[in-house]
C-alpha cells in the first residue's frame, strides 16, 4: 500500500522494539512531539496536522503494535503494555523529554506512559482520551455495537469480523467516520481516500481484528479498575492539556469536564461542533491550541 504520509515532510521508517514498529518522522527543530492514534487507528489519524506542526516542533507519529502498519509480532496489545512500549520508543527516538499527544485510546496509553516514565514526558495532551465515564448516558445503538461487540466473551472477534465483512470498504469507512466525527462531510477527500486505502490493507492483515478486540477489552478493564486508575491520574506531575470535541459520541464532553474538575491544574480546551477526532475535523484550530499550549509550557519551564 502506498503510505499517504510518506513523501515531502514525512519519512516512513521502522524500528525494532521486540518486533517492527512503523513510524513517520516529519522532522522539525522544535520541542519533540509524539502523536499516538486511537483504537483501530494509525499514523493516518494525524495526516492533516503532522506536517503543519512540524513547522514548530519535531514531530513523529507511531503505529502501535496491532494497528496501522505495525504487526503485533507476538507482543501484547493491552494498553498497559502499549504504554511500556511507548515509554521505550520515547527514549529510542528522542534525545530528551517529549510532548506526548494521544487521541482516544492513544490518550489513555499516553497517560499510562507518562505515569510509568515521567522523566521522558515534558507534557501530555489528551485528545478526546478514553477515560472513565463521568455520567451515565445511553449512546445510540450504533455506538453501543461499536463499543460493546468486542467485549462479548467468546464471540468478540467473530462479531467484529461479521460487522466488518458485511460491509464494503467504502461503507465500513463511512460508518466509522460517522461515529468519530460530528460531520464527516467536513473531512477533505484525501482523508477518505487514505482511510479507504488503510481499511483495504487491514482486511489482508489476519491480526487486525484480534488486536482490535484485545485492545478494546484492555481499555475496559483499565477503566473499570477505577481506584487504581485514579491513583495514576493524581500521580501525574507533568503539565497536561485536555482537548475535547463538544459533540464526541464515543467519549462524551462531560468526561473532559469531570477530568478538568478532578485535576484543576490541567487545562481544558473544548472545540464546539466537533466530534472524537478534532485533529481531522478541525485541524487548524487543533494546531493552534497545541502550538500555543506547548509554547507556554516551554516558556514556564525556561523561566522556572
List the helices and strands and how they pair.
Blueprint: E1 11-16, E2 20-27, E3 32-36, H1 50-53, E4 58-62, H2 79-93, E5 98-103, H3 105-116, E6 121-127, H4 141-148, H5 156-165, H6 169-180, H7 189-202, H8 208-224, H9 226-235, E7 240-245, H10 253-262, E8 267-271, H11 278-281, H12 283-303
Parallel strand pairs: 3-4, 3-5, 5-6, 6-7, 7-8
Antiparallel strand pairs: 1-2, 2-4
Characterize the structure shown.
With 304 residues, this protein is α/β, with parallel strands linked by helices. It has one domain (11-303): 3-Layer(aba) Sandwich (Rossmann fold), CATH 3.40.50. Helices cover 45% and strands 16% of the residues. It contains 12 helices and 8 strands. The protein has helices spanning 50-53, 79-93, 105-116, 141-148, 156-165, 169-180, 189-202, 208-224, 226-235, 253-262, 278-281, 283-303; strands at residues 11-16, 20-27, 32-36, 58-62, 98-103, 121-127, 240-245, 267-271. The chain has an 8-stranded mixed sheet, sandwiched between helices. Strand 7 (240-245), helix 10 and strand 8 (267-271) form a beta-alpha-beta unit. The longest helix has 21 residues, at 283-303. The radius of gyration is 18 Å and the shape is globular. It starts with 10 loop residues before the first strand and ends with a helix.
Distinctive features:
single chain, 304 residues, alpha/beta, Rossmann fold, eight-stranded mixed sheet, 8 strands, 45% helix, disordered N terminus
Amino acid at each position: 500500500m502506498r503510505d499517504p504520509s510518506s513523501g515531502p515532510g514525512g519519512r516512513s521508517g521502522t524500528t525494532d522494539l521486540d518486533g517492527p514498529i512503523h513510524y513517520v518522522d516529519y522532522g522539525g527543530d522544535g520541542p519533540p512531539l509524539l502523536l499516538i492514534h486511537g483504537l483501530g487507528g494509525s499514523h493516518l489519524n494525524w495526516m492533516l496536522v503532522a506536517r503543519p506542526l512540524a513547522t514548530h516542533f519535531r514531530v513523529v507519529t507511531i503505529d502501535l503494535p496491532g494497528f496501522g502498519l505495525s504487526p503485533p509480532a507476538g507482543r501484547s496489545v493491552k494498553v498497559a503494555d502499549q504504554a511500556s512500549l511507548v515509554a521505550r520508543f520515547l527514549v529510542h527516538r528522542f534525545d530528551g523529554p517529549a510532548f506526548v499527544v494521544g487521541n482516544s485510546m492513544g490518550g489513555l496509553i499516553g497517560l499510562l506512559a507518562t505515569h510509568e516514565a515521567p522523566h521522558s514526558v515534558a507534557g501530555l495532551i489528551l485528545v478526546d482520551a478514553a477515560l472513565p465515564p463521568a455520567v451515565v448516558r445511553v449512546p445510540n445503538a450504533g455506538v453501543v455495537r461499536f463499543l460493546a461487540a468486542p467485549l462479548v466473551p467468546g464471540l468478540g472477534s467473530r462479531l467484529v469480523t461479521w460487522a466488518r465483512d458485511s460491509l464494503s470498504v467504502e461503507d465500513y469507512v463511512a460508518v466509522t467516520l460517522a461515529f468519530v466525527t460530528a460531520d464527516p462531510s467536513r473531512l477533505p477527500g484525501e482523508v477518505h481516500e487514505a482511510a479507504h486505502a488503510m481499511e483495504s490493507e487491514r482486511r489482508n492483515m489476519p491480526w487486525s481484528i484480534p488486536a482490535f478486540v484485545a485492545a478494546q477489552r484492555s481499555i475496559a478493564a483499565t477503566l473499570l479498575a477505577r481506584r487504581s486508575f485514579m491513583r495514576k491520574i493524581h500521580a501525574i506531575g507533568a503539565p497536561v492539556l485536555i482537548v475535547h470535541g463538544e459533540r464526541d459520541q464515543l467519549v462524551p464532553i462531560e468526561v473532559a469536564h469531570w477530568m478538568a474538575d478532578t485535576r484543576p491544574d490541567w487545562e481544558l480546551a473544548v472545540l464546539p461542533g466537533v466530534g472524537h477526532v478534532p485533529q481531522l475535523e478541525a485541524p487548524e484550530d487543533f494546531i493552534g491550541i497545541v502550538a500555543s499550549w506547548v509554547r507556554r509550557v516551554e516558556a514556564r519551564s525556561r523561566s522556572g
